Amino acid sequence: MQSSGAITRREFLYRAAAVGGTGLLFNTMDAWGMGIASRMAGPPVLSGNGKGKSVLILGAGLAGMTAAYELGKLGYRVQVLEARGFAGGRCQTARKGFTLAELGGEPQRCEFDDGHYINHGPWRIPLHHQSTLHYTRSFGVPLEVMVNDNDHSIVYLENGGPLSRQRLRPAQIKADMRGHVAELLAKSVQDHTLDKKLNAEDQRLLLDYLVHEGQLDNDDLRYKGRSGRGFAVNPGAGMNPGPGTASDPLGFRELLASHVSNVYSAVQDFPMQNTMFQPVGGMDAIAKAFEKRVGRFIRYKAEVQTIRHGEKNVTVTYKDTGTGKLQSLSADYCLCTIPLSVLRMIDTDFSDKFKAAVKAVAYAPVGKIGLQMKRRFWEEDDHIYGGHVFTDLKGINTISLPSSQWQKQKGVLLGYYNYQSAAIEVSAMTPAERAEFALAAGEKIFPAYRASFEKSFSVAWHRVQYNLGGWAEWSEESRKSAYPVLLEGEGRVLLAGEHLSYLTGWQAGAIESAWQQLARIHERASA
Amino acid sequence: MQSSGAITRREFLYRAAAVGGTGLLFNTMDAWGMGIASRMAGPPVLSGNGKGKSVLILGAGLAGMTAAYELGKLGYRVQVLEARGFAGGRCQTARKGFTLAELGGEPQRCEFDDGHYINHGPWRIPLHHQSTLHYTRSFGVPLEVMVNDNDHSIVYLENGGPLSRQRLRPAQIKADMRGHVAELLAKSVQDHTLDKKLNAEDQRLLLDYLVHEGQLDNDDLRYKGRSGRGFAVNPGAGMNPGPGTASDPLGFRELLASHVSNVYSAVQDFPMQNTMFQPVGGMDAIAKAFEKRVGRFIRYKAEVQTIRHGEKNVTVTYKDTGTGKLQSLSADYCLCTIPLSVLRMIDTDFSDKFKAAVKAVAYAPVGKIGLQMKRRFWEEDDHIYGGHVFTDLKGINTISLPSSQWQKQKGVLLGYYNYQSAAIEVSAMTPAERAEFALAAGEKIFPAYRASFEKSFSVAWHRVQYNLGGWAEWSEESRKSAYPVLLEGEGRVLLAGEHLSYLTGWQAGAIESAWQQLARIHERASA
After folding, report:
1. Which tens digits make up the pLDDT trace of B260-289?
2. Sheet containing A302-309: which strands, arranged edge to edge?
C-alpha cells in the first residue's frame, strides 16, 4: 500500500540524485527497497545531460516516444524510426477514416459515425499504472472512468449446467453464492462443528460477520435473498409498486453445478480494480500527446532493414516505404522497441545467444471487433451501463459495452475479445465474416443485437504488420533464460517495450521499461 | 430483472392507452404485475388532454417540475409557486456565487474556484432510477460516472480493535476476510464435517468454488494472500521490480475482532450498485434542464401562506417575498410538493385526520460539507480516484472524493456526510467551526489534509428554510397509518414528492411520485 511517505522518499531521491549522480540514485533506490518506476510514479531522476550524444530509437510506440521525450529533455540528440505513417504503436483508436490492412487480408476503413470509436489496442488504464497516469497528467490528457466492473451486466453460459442459456446478472450470482456459503458456515458454527478450529468469541464474531456478509435471517440464519440481487418489482412511489417485490435467490446446488460462481471471486485481481480510466475520445489521445512533443524526432514510414553495432556506434538501415529508397543512420546508442515478433525477422549482427533470446518469446494472438449499433439497447432495454458481458460462447469471451456517450442514440460495443486458438480461428475470416460471427453469438444474449447492427471494424493483432501479436507471452522458462539476456541488450543496442516487463500487454509496461533502459543508456553515456 | 420484453410490454401499454383510455391503461398495468413507473422507465401514458383545466403546483423541485412538464404537455393550464428565487428544490449545486443562509445562521457564499462544486443535495443517480435517467436522456443532460465503490479507498477506524487507526484498503479487507472464510469452509469439507449437509459431488464443486473465491493454495487449501489485496512492491519492468513482491494478509482473528469486515458485504445494496452517475458539472443540471422547459409556469419568491380547498377548486394565498405583498391563485386542482416538514406549518383547511398525517412523518437531519483542497493529495499520494473513505470518526461517516476533474490541480471533496444526532450536533456550529471539525478528523487519515485546505461550504438540511430536513423518514407505523392518507390527498389537493415513495431522499422518488399523482389528477379531470 502506497503511503503518503512516498513523496518524502521521492523528494529524498531528487536530492540524492542532485548530489551523487546516477549511480548513487540507483543504490539509494535499492536501499529503500524500491524498484525503479514501481513505487516511483514518474520517470527516473537523472543528473547530468546528454549534450553531444546521440540515441537512435527504433519504433515510435509508447516505449519509443517515452524514451525520445525523456532523453530529449536531457539534451540527447534523438532520432526515431517508425515504420508506420503515424506514431503510437499499438496505442490506436479506430474512428471514421482509420484504415488497416492485415497481412494477407482485405483493407478495412473504419466508417463509424462521428464521435464513435473502438480502442482496438489498449483500452484500459488501471489506477495502479502510475507511469501511464504520470503522462496523462503531465500532458493534460483528459480521462474518464472506464466501467470495468458492472454487477448489473450479464453472464450467459451455453455450458452452465442447470443455469445454461440464462441471462444472469453478476449481482445475483455473487449475492446468492455468498449468501448460501455464509449460511452453510453459519450453521456449522451453530452445530458446533467448528469448535476445534475457533474459540467461542471468534465464533460469535464470525457469526456476526456471516449474517452481515450474506444478509442472513437473524433468527434461523438462512439466506433468503437480498436487495442487492435485484427486485422482482423495483421499489417506487405510492402503494404500487411502493416497497417493491423481492426476488427469489438461485438455488445453491444449481449455482454449484453451473460453475457460474467461478466467473467472479472475492476481489478483482490487481490490475482490474476500480477505478479504471480511459482517455476521453479514444486511447490514441495518449499517443498524440506524446507525438506532439516528440514528433519532430520521428521519421515515419521508415522500415528498419538491418541493425549493425560496433564498439563506438550503431548503424541502422531503413527503407522509406513511400519512396522505396534505402537509407542509413548512425548513433552512439540504439534503443530498439520493435516487438520481438518483428525483430526476429530483421537482419542484425546480434550474437547467436541474443538472437536465440529474441526468438524465444511467444506473442499472443488477439482479436477484437467493434460493432456500431444504431441503438444502445443494452442501456435502454437492460440498464447495463458499461462493463463486460461474460460468456462461454465460442470465440467471444466478453462483449464489452462502451463507457462513453451515455444515453446517446448510438454506440460502438466490443463484440469479442478473443485470444489464442479462438483468435486464430476468427482471424482467418474476412472482416464481414467476423462481424457475422459476432452477431450470431451476440443475438443469443441480446434480442436487439442483429437488428441494431450497422458497421464493424475488426483487428487480429497477430496479422498486423509491425506487430505480429498482441503482446509478449513469457513462459516460466523463457523468463529465466531469455528475459535477462534481452534486458541486458547487446553492445550499444538496448531493448525496451512491454515485452521487457511484468506488465506485458499494458502501456505501463512499455513506459516503465523505457524508463529503465533510458536510465541505463544515460548511465553508460555519462560514465 | 428487466428483460428485453419490457419494450414489448410498453408498446402494448401504449396501444392499450390509445384504444381504451386511462382506466384501461391502469388495469392493464396491474394485470401485467407492473407498478406505474417501476418497471416503466417513462412517465405514465395518458390519453385525452387537459384543455381548459388548471393545476396549481406548489414547489418547483423535481416533483413539481415533473408534474408541470407532463401536465403542460397534456394541455393543462399550469402554474407553479416556488418560495425560492430559483427552481430545483433540494437539487442544488454549490459553486462560486451560490449563497445559503441557514435558519438562525450566518450567510454563506460559496467561493470555490471556477469549475469546482459540491452537490450538497442529491449527488448520485443509480442505474435503477430509470425515471431520473428518463429525463437526463430526454433533456440531453450529459452524465459521467460517479465512483461509488472503490476498493482502493481507505477504511479508518478509531474503534477497530487490533486494526484501529490504520489506513486499510477495502480490497485488503475483502480479499483477506473472504480468503480466510473460504479456507475455513474448505477445511471443513476436507475434514468431512459437512458430509451431512452436502453430498460428495456438491462438496467437490464447493471446494472448487472456494479455491477460486478465496484464491486458496491448491495443495494445502490455505489462504496466503492474493494480488487483489495489493502488492508490497508493485510489478513493473525489468528485473527490479520485475514481478513485484506479494503482500501479507491481515490475520483472521484481527479481522474478526476489528469488526472491519462488516463495513462491506457480498454485494452492494440495491440502490448503491455500479454503474452510478452524476451530471457533468453538477446535479443542478437536471433542475436547470427542467426549469428551461417549465420556467414560464413558475412564480419565484412566492411563499405559500394558506391553502383552501372546496368542491370546485383550490385557492392558495402566497406572499411575494420580494415585495411582501399577499396574492392568491385558484385552480381546478392543486398538487402540493412542499415537504411535510414545511407543510405542517402552513395554514390549511385540511381535515384533522389529514393534518395529523402530515405531522406524523419525521424528517432526517442531514449535514454535508464541501472542502476545496489546493492539491488532490488523495489521487497523487494515495491513488484514490473517487469513492468513499469510511470511518467511525465522530460526526464524519464518510469522506468522499470527487469523480470529476481527474488529475487536475485542485478538487472539492465531501468532508462529512452525517445524519441524526451527529448532524444535529455539527449543525450547531458556525460554517468556520464545521470546517475545523472536518479538518481535525480528516487529517487523522490524510496527512496532507489540513495543509491543502482552502475553502469550505456546508449545509445542514434541517436548518434550511423551505426544507427543514434532508428527506422524509418513515417508520413502520407511519407507513401504515399516515402514508395511505397522504397518498389519497384531500379533496382537490394531491401531494407528491420523495416523501410519498419508497425511494425517500432520491430524486427518482420525487419524479415517480409526481408521475403517479399527475396521472390521478388527469384521471379525475377526465372523468
Report:
1. 988 888 898 999 999 999 999 999 999 999
2. A326-331, A314-320, A302-309, A347-348
**pLDDT at residue B29, as a whole number:** 35
The DSSP letter of residue B48 is S
First to last CA, chain A: 36
Q: Answer yes or no: is the ipTM higher than 0.90.
A: yes
The alpha carbon of residue B26 and the mean position of all alpha carbons in its chain are separated, in whole angstroms, by: 29
Q: How many CB atoms lie within 10 A of CB B201?
A: 11
pTM for the model stands at 0.92
Q: Nearest to residue A365, comparing CAs of A306, A282, A425, A414?
A: A425
State the CB neighbour count (10 A cutoff) for residue B36. Answer: 23
Q: Taking CA atoms, what residue in A is nearest to B213?
A: A265
Count CB pairs under 8 A between chains A and B: 363
What residue type is assigned to position A240 of the chain?
A: N
Classify A447 in phi/psi space as left (phi over 0), alpha (psi -120 to 50) or beta.
alpha
Distance set, CA B305 to CA B57, B83, B90, B338 (Å): 14, 10, 21, 12
Q: Do B233 and A144 touch (CB under 8 A)?
A: no
The neighbouring-strand residues paired with B261 are: none
pLDDT under 70: residue ranges of chain A = 1-40
Long-range (24+ apart) CB contacts under 8 A made by A250-255 are A250/A163, A250/A168, A250/A172, A250/A173, A250/A176, A252/A176, A252/A177, A252/A180, A252/A184, A252/B202, A253/A162, A253/B202, A254/A161, A254/A162, A254/A163, A255/A163, A255/A173, A255/A176, A255/A177, A255/A180
Question: How is A401-444 classified by DSSP, letter by letter?
Answer: E-SSSTT-S-EEEEEEEEEHHHHHHHHTS-HHHHHHHHHHHHHH
Taking the C-alpha atoms of residue B206 and residue B353, their distance in angstroms, rounded to an integer, is: 57
User: CB within 8 A of A322, min separation 6: which ones?
Assistant: A301
- The verdict on a CB contact (< 8 Å) between B383 and A34 is no
Instruction: Give per-residue pLDDT as tens, B490-522.
Output: 999 999 999 999 999 999 999 999 999 999 999
Going from the C-alpha of A30 to that of each of A20, A33, A487, B161, B241, the distances in angstroms are 15, 5, 18, 35, 10
Instruction: Identify which of B37, B214, B273 has the shortest CB distance to residue A236.
Output: B37
